[in-house]
Amino acid sequence: MSGPVPAHRRPSALPGRDHRGVLAGFLAVIIGARIGMSALKLSLVLSCLVLLATLLAAFVALSGWWRLREGRAARELAGWVAAGGWEPVPDRPWPWWGLVEHADTVTVLRAYRNRVAGLPVVTGELAFVDDALSTAVDRREGYAVFVVVTLPQPAPARAVRLRRNPVSRRLDRDEFRRRFRPVGAEQHRLDDPELRAAHVRGEIPPWTLIEDELFVFVPLTAPLRPEHLEDAARRAIRVAHLFGLPVEVGEHG
Question: Is the distance from CB of 117 to CB of 249 less than 8 angstroms?
Answer without folding.
Answer: yes
